[in-house]
Design goal:
By secondary structure, the protein is α/β, with parallel strands linked by helices. It has 11 helices and 16 strands. The strands form 4 sheets. It has a 7-stranded mixed β-sheet, sandwiched between helices. A 4-stranded mixed β-sheet has the order 11-8-9-14, covered by helices on one side. Strand 4, helix 6 and strand 5 form a beta-alpha-beta unit. Helix 2 packs antiparallel against helix 5, helix 4 runs antiparallel to helix 5 and helix 5 crosses helix 6. The chain starts with 11 loop residues before the first strand and ends with a helix. It binds 5-S-methyl-1-O-phosphono-5-thio-D-ribulose (MRU).
Length: 349
Amino acid sequence: MTYPYPLTIKPVEWVDGKVRWLDTSKLPHEEVYYESDDYERIALAIERMEIRGAPAIGVAAALAVAATALKHSTSSLDELRCICMKAIERLWRTRPTAHNLFWALNRMRRVLEGTYRDADELRHALVKEALEIYRQDIETNMAIGRIGEKLLEDGDTVLTHCNAGALATAGFGTALGIIRAAWYSGKKIKVIATETRPVLQGARLTVWELKKEGIPVTLITDNMVGYVMSRGLVTKVIVGADRVLRDGHVINKIGTYMIALCASRHRIPFYVAAPTSTIDLETPLEKVVIEQRNPDEVRYVMGRLITLPDVEVLNPAFDITPPDLVTAIVTERGIVYPPYEENLRKLFE
Ligand code: MRU
């Protein structure tokens, strides 16, 4: 496969009928890869955030369904459909917020519901679709990079939150895809990465990715955003998204809303990089499920208890940024500006 930009990190891959993934929960200290064709193991990897980031979990789930079809050698079409449907149902329940997971599993389900002569024909169709989802994700990210890098200029310092990089996708990344593309085109830019409590995706993953490429990055704690913006140390913000609603509400890593508020106060453009697989034209705001994670993620930092063990904790994984704080949304089909309701719909026409 040839792509317009280098693919330096492959967090999720298809290798000989199995899913291979980089365990991002162990980064940056250990680079450990696993391989499996067991959908239960892959579902656990998503729940434990070995595989994380909206596009990556969608791709991994689709590949898991394809691996399930290859693993079971039944010649009965009905039995194969039944096994794969169980895999889809299990993967569906792993994480509730990122739209890409449901988008990818719905694509696999539609293939499952097609008409086939025998089980092998269905197996072939499932593998083809999963590999298509994988390939499209990389191409989409590179298109977002190519389109979005026009928003960046020499001398920009871009603040990003969480990890919307190669490690959150099949490769290249969305928000970091734009930063990568600008860097490859020779623009002298710098990045400020927020640490992103409690799971530290910024400190552990974004810093690791950018350092690997030689892109200048400075790490700050989440509570320094106001300081760096008020001092003029940030010229643009680019974040990813787990779900974008039809009216432009952006659901992304907890803390994104606070950054958007601060950016608005300081008149700093706030860009969201999101493939169309993240855009959900159907779900109304009040029906969006914000994942609530294990309170111990807040009580402990890197395995060390930092508070009293029985303290009450809130641990929502995502927050919601209203459309009026979003300067533009960069998709693989173009840059979308307000009014979002109208302009997002046009993307799908
Ligand atoms: O909980 P995570 O690490 O899966 O959250 C990831 C994010 O919030 C990313 O910003 C989002 O998925 C976009 S990734 C291209």
